[in-house]
Amino acid sequence: MKHEMQAIQEEVANRPEDSYENPFKIILQKCKLAKDLKTVYDNLCSTGVVQLSVNDWIQVSFCLPHKVHSTVHRGVEVEPEAIERCIQALRPYHGMLLLVNETELLASLPPDGSPALGRLIQVASPLKSLHNLAADADLSLAQVFHLVSHLVYWAKAMIVYPLCESNVYVLAPDADTSVNSILVEEFVEEFPGMSLPAVLADYSLPTPLGEHRDILGLPQQQAQQVLIVVWMLKHRLLMQLHTYIFLISPAENDHKQSVHVASISEEVHVSDAASVTSGDSPSASGTYPNSKSPSDNLSDESYIPRHIADMALAHFSAQDRDSIKAQVKASNPDDLRLFARLVPYFNGQHHLEEIMYYENVRRSQLLTLLDKFRGILVPCTHPDPATAVHVKL
User: Fold this and answer.
1) Other C-beta atoms within 10 Å of 247: how many?
2) Residues sharing a CB contact under 8 Å with residue 353, sequence separation 6 or more, in sequence order
């Protein structure tokens, strides 16, 4: 093909000046490689997706992720760095929501595509975590992470937290709430008899999903409620809020300042343990290989001797230790033991669901701890970076 292009250029160059013709036009008409290159360029400019068969044999697939996401989400600008951050933030407790029809997605896979990808798509559900998807598809967690990252990169799926009644949703700040929006028509086609503006009004304030459920409703109505939330998540109308915890301590002159817990975080490697590509990824039971929980330093007696409590809180200043111990009765060692164990997470970088997964604790336990230590534990809510890639905050 290369020689064919050169031959055409030489032929045009040897023609008289009055019969000159653009050689590239001729090459484009006669050379299949030139046609393929033009197709690649045109597709990158229009959709950002290239799926080409060279010589009807070699499959070439490529995409510009930011352009693909912009096309799928109707002109919303997504930076490539945001997509990369989303992929890097994947955790076993996250879930996957397909953005395209399952049947169409399976049909679009190449003949020599990975069978593992097909199995993952078939068991995909926004109600399951990646950990559960790995078990259902008989794949390793590392494989699931790789395949999900591929689907997110190609805008075939988005990362969500598995739907449950405790999930808190609110209208996305850039949601199209116009009554004349094309989404209104699409919503009515999907859910006849329902009004999108009326449904959106229910999510104008952050509310747990369970509070939107009609306890007297039929099972079909409750199932439809889940489908409506899934539809709104796909169209970026909702975003989920997570609760993060900050540990603060009283400073001089009654001013509050953050407690430095970086040294503790480094000891237990919380962030490193969350990576499935490393050999130190934590198990769902909340244990960390080659690490010791701060709670191991506490006594199992019915009371907490002062020197044992001081050992558990050795990373804090004397003033901070006194402030922490003042938050709980000395006759209740379990609260201080749990607090010391979870201290590495109280830096505003880990939400409740992450703590629940890695430390194998219940939500009620965390909420009780927040209440008992409310003088030094401050909760705040904001989206998870892994699930907010399409939200302009």
Assistant:
1) 23
2) 93, 161, 242
Question: Is 126 in contact with 162 (CB distance < 8 Å)?
Answer: yes
Q: What is the predicted pLDDT for the residue at 80?
A: 79
> Are 82 and 152 spatial neighbours (Cβ–Cβ below 8 Å)?
no
| Longest CA–CA separation in the chain, Å | 104
Q: Look up residue 247 and give its DSSP letter.
A: E
Confidence of residue 72 (pLDDT cuts 50, 70, 90): confident
Which pLDDT value is given to residue 385? 75
Q: Which single residue is written with the structure tokens 């209208």?
A: 171
**Could you tell me if residue 193 is left (phi over 0), alpha (psi between -120 and 50 degrees) or otherwise beta?**
left
How many Å apart are CA 223 and CA 227, to the nearest integer? Answer: 6
What is the rounded distance in angstroms from the CA atom of residue 341 to the CA atom of residue 298?
Answer: 10
Tokens 């595509």, located at residue: 113
Give the C-alpha separation, 243 to 263, whole Å. 23
Alpha-carbon distance 331 to 334, whole Å? 9
Nearest residue to 94 (alpha-carbon basis) of 158, 169, 151, 138: 158
For residue 19, which phi and psi values (nearest 5 degrees)?
Answer: -115, 25
pTM (2 d.p.): 0.73
- For residues 345, 347, 352, 354, the Cα torsion angle rounded to the nearest 10 degrees is -50
Give 361's contacts (C-beta < 8 A, 6+ positions apart): 286, 338, 342, 355
138/134 Cα distance (integer angstroms): 6
- The amino acid occupying position 199 is V
- Assign 3-state DSSP to the chain and report helix, strand, coil percentages, each to 5: 50, 15, 40
* Total residues belonging to the chain: 393
CB atoms within 10 A of CB 275: 17
